[in-house]
Specification:
The complex is a heterotrimer of chains A (225), B (223) and C (245). Chain B has 9 helices and no strands. With 223 residues, chain B is mainly α. In chain B, helix 3 packs antiparallel against helix 5, helix 3 packs across helix 6 (130-157) and helix 6 (130-157) runs parallel beside helix 9. Chain B is globular and about 55 Å long. By secondary structure, chain C is mainly alpha-helical. Classes of the chains: A alpha/beta (225), B mainly alpha (223), C mainly alpha (245). Chains B and C meet through helix 6, helix 7, helix 8 and helix 9 of B and helix 5 and helix 6 of C.
Chain lengths: 225, 223, 245
């Protein structure tokens, strides 16, 4: 089975796959023999208690962490050997919004766009879509968590990543920001881009395609949302 | 080259954030000033002693300031997980090192300018060869910023071991301290040709550490 | 690199380790005999000068160990194979001891000869800086228990530290040459007499074998530690395929 995957390394039938991936932090197994396959356009939800390993799965997919054992690929690129290619096409959103306090929303977006290789011409439009156009020039320091998350959504909108990874994206959000995140997921799925979301919140009906339940670092069962 | 372009983007962002946050003005400058005044009390009030030790004390202040500035350069990346954002960006990680080191070097140069004024006033230092002096501090700032910019990323990940960062950095930058103080002393007394040798050492140090940093920084960021 | 790894494997096998142990004992015995009995006392310094037969080998090992740390660190960064990290860590732990020994003996030797504990002699000063860099290396290893991170970070220190040492030495030598003392004494004296040189070389050789033996032991202990950690972990992991290390 693995040989087949090796041969079709560049195949995009599977957008993301993890094969028996284990991740240890010191002596602590955060993830144990995880097998995950995500297809393009699919919205996969990860559920489970704190410490179940959902964040670890996402971070491994994003290449923020490398697997201790096992291997995997994103868009056909190897998780360990072809990280830069994966990073070009993958966006990881978490409750840490990666914004600089003393820069404005627009300046933050301009900075990240330059590093992420995204054209900065649409920054104003993106901020408008998330309802932050009036505060585009204000320092992020004064923003609420909901506003910050919306800036992050704007950043992801500009990127249009092939793989969208969301880690507890709804935490501490107001209704407007919540909708913005849902729009993001819906749009990505419609475009045939893969989405993986880890969340405690109930998701809007029809948004998710499949659910994986995790506990103690293992995937315990799969289900319909 | 995209490496330099990304480094410039990061450096510009750091400088802009620093101008707004005014951390250097609010913290670094007063720290250096307090340190120099304290040195004055500790070694004075005899003018001879102060004059003789002035270059060394000035460089000590710059050294400590470099440690603080380098720590701070990476602290701002932890505020909201931005460091991971830099890790996940499809850029050469060496750009982060170069950008941050450049921003720290700039801060140190501003600090040096102010500290120099203070030392001239407090310790009655006269400088015969300002060009050599400027070169010494310029090259020294680059060297200190390179080492600090390289290991500052460790300090962020190892927040529980606060003293580790200076313990790592200070032995490594000994050549900068030695060469810088010698060159400053020679510049003050106008012996330019002897100073050139020390400037050469500083150049060598800078070249080595900037190159090393570019080569190995990625290993420090990845997990 | 593979040749080196295979050689390392042979030298640190159980039988290789035992062989090294015996050789080390013999070497030390021979060295002690030569340095304490056969070699004459120094004309100027007397019996104190015999400290040289331990001080110089210790200093030699301080630098040899760090060279090994450097080479292993580069090897680790290029291949990501844990064996190189194990060698680097072992060499650092052993090296720091010999460095401290060299410095202490240097001071002990210096007090009766120069009248002070410390004169900022260039070689001793550089060795003191080396000690600090070693300590930095070992401190970095304690920050994280993530083995890959620990290996990578310490490898970077190993490389950067080693490259820095010659620069430090150069700066200290130039720095010291400004202040020529009225009596500039080389620790070994201006000339070394024949039998003293032999004793010194034998001492250096014996200590090097001791170093190799200690490395072999430390590597074996390291392997045991890792195996114990893996076995403690495996009930929680089920059967986890062991990644080729």
């Amino acid at each position: 089975m693995h040989d087949l995957h090796e041969k079709h390394a560049r195949s995009t039938v599977t957008a993301v796959e993890l094969n028996a991936v284990t991740r240890l932090f010191g002596a602590n197994p955060a993830l144990v023999r995880a097998d995950v396959r995500v297809s393009p356009g699919e919205v996969l939800v990860l559920r489970g208690p704190n410490g179940a390993g959902k964040t670890t799965v996402l971070r491994i997919m994003a290449t923020a962490l490398s697997p201790t054992y096992g291997h995997g690929s994103v868009l056909g690129f190897d998780l360990v050997r072809e990280r830069d290619a994966i990073r070009r096409h993958t966006d990881l959103m978490s409750d840490r919004t990666r914004l600089y306090e003393d820069l404005s929303a627009a300046e933050n977006l301009r900075f990240w766009c330059r590093l992420l290789g995204v054209d900065g011409a649409d920054i104003q439009a993106a901020l408008d879509r998330v309802g932050l156009l009036e505060v585009a020039g204000e320092r992020v320091r004064g923003f609420s968590q909901g506003m910050r998350q919306r800036v992050a959504v704007a950043r992801t909108l500009l990127r249009r990543p092939q793989i969208l990874l969301l880690d507890e994206p709804y935490t501490g959000l107001d209704a407007e920001a919540h909708h913005a995140v849902d729009d993001l997921i819906r749009e990505a799925s419609r475009d045939g881009r893969a989405v993986v979301v880890a969340t405690h919140h109930a998701m809007q009906r029809g948004l998710a395609d499949r659910v994986l339940f995790m506990d103690g670092g293992r995937i315990v069962r799969q289900g319909e949302p | 080259m995209s490496l330099l372009r990304h480094a410039a983007t990061i450096a510009a962002k750091d400088v802009r954030a620093e101008i707004r946050a005014k951390h250097a003005i609010a913290t670094l400058l007063p720290f250096a000033a307090t340190l120099l005044v304290s040195f004055g009390f500790a070694f004075g009030p005899g003018r001879d002693v102060l004059l003789r030790t002035a270059p060394g004390l000035l460089w000590m202040a710059v050294l400590f300031a470099a440690v603080i500035a380098a720590r701070r350069a990476y602290q701002i990346e932890s505020e909201d997980g931005a460091l991971e954002g830099l890790l996940l960006a499809p850029i050469d990680k060496a750009a982060v090192f170069l950008g941050k080191a450049a921003a720290v070097a700039l801060q140190l140069l501003m600090l040096v300018a102010c500290a120099l004024v203070l030392v001239v006033v407090l310790f009655d230092l006269t400088v015969r060869d300002p060009l050599v002096l400027a070169a010494a501090f310029g090259l020294g700032a680059v060297g200190l910023a390179a080492v600090g910019g390289l290991f500052g990323v460790l300090a962020e990940a190892a927040r529980t071991r606060e003293a580790l960062f200076p313990t790592l950095v200070l032995p490594l930058v000994t050549p900068v301290l030695v060469a810088g103080v010698r060159a400053t002393d020679l510049a003050a007394t106008g012996r330019t040709d002897e100073a050139i040798v020390w400037l050469g050492l500083l150049v060598a140090f800078d070249v080595v550490f900037v190159s090393l940093g570019v080569l190995v920084f990625g290993f420090l960021m990845e997990d | 690199m593979e040749i080196a790894a295979r050689g390392l494997g042979t030298a640190t096998s159980r039988s290789g380790e035992r062989l090294l142990g015996v050789a080390a004992l013999l070497g030390l015995g021979l060295s002690a005999t030569l340095s304490l009995v056969v070699a004459p006392p120094d004309a100027l310094q007397g019996e104190v000068q015999r400290l040289m037969y331990v001080h110089v080998p210790a200093a030699w090992l301080a630098y040899l160990s760090f060279f090994v740390v450097f080479v292993s660190s580069v090897a680790y960064l290029r291949t990501s194979r844990t064996r190189w990290d194990r060698v680097a860590a072992a060499s650092a732990e052993i090296g720091v001891l010999f460095t401290a020994l060299a410095i202490v003996l240097g001071a002990l030797w210096g007090k009766p000869v120069w009248g002070t504990w410390w004169t900022w002699d260039p070689r001793l000063t550089t060795t003191a800086m080396l000690l600090l860099i070693y300590i930095g290396y070992l401190a970095v290893r304690r920050i994280t228990d993530n083995p890959t991170r620990r290996a990578r970070w310490s490898a970077v220190i190993g490389v950067v530290g080693f490259v820095d040492v010659p620069i430090v030495h150069l700066s200290v030598v130039w720095w010291r040459s400004l202040h020529q003392q009225s009596t500039v004494l080389r620790l070994g004296g201006p000339q070394i007499e024949g039998s003293m040189l032999t004793a010194l070389l034998v001492a250096v050789g014996a200590f090097t074998i001791v170093y190799a033996y200690l490395i072999a032991v430390r590597l074996r202990v390291g392997r045991l530690e890792e195996r114990a950690a893996r076995e403690a972990l495996s009930p929680r992991l089920g059967e986890v395929e062991e990644a080729a290390r």
